Automatic annotation (TrEMBL):
Protein name: THSD4 protein
UniProt-annotated location(s): Secreted, Extracellular space, Extracellular matrix
Keyword set, alphabetical order: Disulfide bond, Extracellular matrix, Repeat, Secreted, Signal
GO biological process, one term: extracellular matrix organization
UniProt cross-references to PROSITE patterns, sorted A to Z: PLAC (PS50900), TSP1 (PS50092)
Domain PLAC: 656-693
A Pfam cross-reference name: ADAMTS_spacer1
GO molecular function terms noted in the UniProt entry: metalloendopeptidase activity
Superkingdom of origin: Eukaryota
Disordered: region residues: 282-305
Length: 703
């Protein structure tokens, strides 16, 4: 075996080429292990700091490991396995019972799952681990707020005892070393576990500190089977003694008094099988017949005795250690030390353990491992557990944090960044709307781009932050009728000529049953002139003050008077506008907006009256629209304009035709004789014939 501090044999072989030029240059070489198959026994070396490797030799030195973590070695360029019997090419492996080349029949696997529903908080016994158990595995089936605990049958707490939660780590107990694991990664779902190779030298009890519903505890360990030496005896085997239970014993040795113990499943009460447990010292010592008994040592005289000359060094510098008295053989009179053979060994005092350095050790910060980064890319956070701990009686206890106040407390959180996140990029502007009017859709190109500028899968970016690549677009109603508001009450000019305004909107008609004309190009006027009287005191090529806004809300206009004047001594003379035509004329009108109007009533023009006389009716469509011309329900119902009204209520009067007269005085006789059907009489007695015709039809003056 090579010393632990020695360099890896492949590193040594690659480094031997550092002083040899390669293609005219010198490089420093390191092993390149990313090869497969027969290449594992070639000497492949990579130039440090460069991205290429070279096969420096067809074969490595015999004995070079094939893999960094494997047991196979290279011999004559071939990868050869090594069996557990240390023979090259052997295929023997250690079975689960720990026997090289065994067939797994020399031991018994005991396993089960503790799934009991618990109600009381606190410690609950799960399983008993017998003496001699190996390959111990106690694992919580999923993460929970419960804790596993371990205690010896003598009552000594090994892990998580007395309501003190220990940090994950290695703890000695029952003659073996237990590895206590408690995954602290945020994303991990694995539970706690105890693992130990064994064998145990006493009975151990496993407990669960119950705080929430039990997720299930899986337990498994291996115990010796029939005709197998117990693990305790294996540890004390003398050189030359046979293994695997092949012990040479006299035929007369009796096995009738062997103790048989039945392993019973503590959860179900069912027998898990019977096996013999062979206790240390059960095998009789066999002395060959031709061996001469050893001669008894001569009796020592009383001139020497045992004397305590000191104590061993304390096992710890603080926190309660142990030490033992040291006894030497001395001359009774001179107290000089002499060889121990001068004293009676049977009278030598047995050293008893004594406590020492009882004062507690200084408290310290116990720093846990960092959790996984909260973000897979970009800036995230990671956490770790920081506990104030103190060692006493070979145990590490959690204490109040004020005991560590003399030390700077390490950070419990830290920023982390595994890699730079990819980001969303908008590659194109919005397309035009898919429809000329009404509601359609428009699109744009959105891509996930890495920090190197490459387009990658969308999953590489945060889907919650993805910009929309499609949205609705409203091109306005597909118009059919003009909708307009009432004229504004206020003239844009306080004096002189001004205007009043109204809103005009072309919208789809879908209410009225009467045929209304389409919008077309005949847009109703949005302004109408108004005059509040002449203005006094006109001034020079000069802009007067703005009038009030033509509307109290929404969009309107403001007017101001702009005239061309000439200043004289103390006066201004008004000139014709052309006198100032070479100057830029200030605007006389501008738009204004005082406040949103909110919803308002809009209506169409009145339809044609249904009658020309004696009372007809006409209709118009009325809608409530918001500032953005969308349908609304916020208008005042009391201010809603009428949708239907009477019209042409005047009486129907026959039309008088000056050319239609009676030419004879007795035309009434023509009417009585019903001669008006003839053209001659209809013309000669036009008035009488027309009057009787209207009376008979019952409809006067209908157009």
């Amino acid at each position: 075996m090579c010393p632990e501090s020695s360099r890896n044999i492949r590193e040594v072989q690659c480094a031997s080429y550092n002083n040899k030029p390669f293609m005219g240059r010198f490089y420093e070489w390191e092993p390149f292990a990313e090869v497969k198959g027969s290449q594992k026994c070639e000497l492949n070396c990579r130039a440090i700091g460069y991205r290429f490797y070279v096969r420096q030799a067809e074969t490595v030195i015999d004995g070079t490991p094939c893999d960094p973590n494997g047991t196979a070695i290279c011999v004559a360029g071939q990868c050869k396995s090594i069996g557990c019997d240390d023979y090259l090419g052997s295929d023997k492996v250690i079975d689960k019972c720990g026997i090289c080349g065994g067939d797994n029949t020399a031991c018994k696997v005991v396993s089960g799952v503790f799934k009991h529903t618990l109600t009381n908080l606190g410690y609950h016994k799960i399983v008993e681990i017998p003496e001699g158990a190996t390959k111990i595995n106690i694992t919580e089936m999923s993460k929970s707020n419960n804790y596993l605990a371990l205690r010896s049958r003598s009552g000594r707490s090994i892990i998580n005892g007395n309501w003190a939660i220990d940090r994950p780590g290695r703890y000695e107990g029952g003659g073996t070393m237990f590895t206590y694991r408690r995954p602290n990664e945020i994303s991990s779902t694995a539970g706690e576990s105890f693992l130990a190779d064994g064998p145990t030298n006493e009975v151990l009890d496993v407990y669960m500190i119950h705080q929430q519903p039990n997720p299930g505890i899986h337990y498994e360990y291996i115990i010796p089977g029939d005709n197998v030496i117990s693990p305790q005896l294996l540890a004390h085997r003398r050189p030359g003694e046979p293994l695997n239970g092949q012990l040479g014993m006299p035929e007369s040795t009796s096995h009738e008094d062997e103790d048989l113990h039945r392993e019973t499943d503590i959860l179900t009460g069912q027998s898990a099988g019977t096996f013999p447990v062979i206790q240390p010292g059960r095998f009789p010592s066999h002395q060959p017949e031709n061996q001469v008994p050893a001669m008894q040592p001569p009796r020592q005289n009383r001139e020497h005795n045992w004397k305590q000359v000191g104590k061993t060094e304390c096992t710890t510098t603080c926190g309660k250690g142990s030490q033992y008295p040291i006894f030497h053989c001395v001359n009774r009179i001179t107290h000089e030390e002499v060889p121990e053979s001068y004293c009676d060994s049977s009278t030598k005092p047995i050293p008893e353990e004594e406590a020492c350095n009882l004062f507690p050790c200084p408290a310290f910060w116990d720093i846990g491992e960092w959790s996984e980064c909260s973000k897979t890319c970009g800036l995230g956070m990671q956490h770790r557990q920081i506990l104030c701990r103190q060692i006493y009686a070979n145990r590490t206890l959690t204490v109040q944090q004020y005991r560590c106040q003399h030390l700077e407390k390490p950070d419990t959180t830290s920023t982390c960044q595994l890699k730079i996140c990819s980001e969303w990029q908008i590659r194109t502007e919005w397309t035009s709307c898919s429809v000329p009017c009404g509601v359609g859709q428009r699109t744009r190109d959105v891509k996930c781009v890495s920090n190197l500028g490459d387009i990658v899968d969308d999953e590489e970016c945060n889907m919650k932050l993805r910009p929309n690549d499609i949205e609705n677009c409203d091109m306005g109603p597909c118009a059919k009728s003009w909708f307009l508001t009432e004229w504004s009450d206020r003239c844009s000019a306080e004096c002189g000529d001004g205007i009043r305004t109204r809103s005009v909107v072309c919208m789809t008609n879908h209410v009225s049953s009467l045929p209304l004309e389409g919008c077309g190009n005949n847009r109703p006027l949005e302004t109408t002139p108004c005059n509040n009287g002449p203005c006094a005191g006109k001034v020079e090529w000069f802009a007067g003050g703005w009038t009030q806004c033509s509307t109290e809300c929404g969009s309107g206009t403001q007017q101001r008077e702009v005239i061309c004047v000439r200043k004289t001594e103390g006066n201004f003379d008004v000139l014709n506008s052309y006198e100032c035509s070479y100057l830029e004329k200030p605007p006389s009108q501008q738009s204004c907006y005082l406040k949103p109007c909110g919803s308002k009533w809009f209506h169409t023009e009145w339809s044609t009256c249904s009658k020309s006389c004696e009372g007809g009716f006409r209709v118009r469509e009325v809608r409530c629209l918001s500032d953005d011309m969308a349908a609304s329900t916020q208008c005042d119902p009391q201010l809603k304009p009428e949708e239907k009204e009477q019209c042409n209520t005047q009486d129907c009067v026959p039309e008088i035709d000056e050319n239609c007269k009676d030419k004879y005085y007795n035309c009434n006789v023509v009417v009585q004789a019903r001669l008006c059907v003839y053209t001659y009489y209809k013309t000669a007695c036009c008035a009488s014939c027309t009057r009787v015709a209207n009376r008979q039809s019952g409809f006067l003056g209908r157009r």
